[in-house]
Description:
This is Arylsulfatase regulatory protein. By secondary structure, the chain is mainly alpha-helical. It contains five helices and no strands.
Amino acid sequence: MNINTDLLQHVKRINNHVQAFPDNETGNTQLLMTMYNYMDSFKQVMDAATRVQMDFLTLQYDGFYRFAKLLEQMAQEIADGTITTP
């Protein structure tokens, strides 16, 4: 799969960061507190990658997949009222 080098650097940066946290409740809580610093990189990947490329990247990089799933879960919980926002 042909992926732009800059895009891949963003993915690897996110992936490496996420992998520093254990994949459990405590690790996820700690990760959530640090995700803001990686949101711009994630947005750049989302804006530039095709659906097929995103699928490929989430299969290849477990940390990137976990980051995306945590964001998806938060969005769903905000939408259904589980998480309230001001």
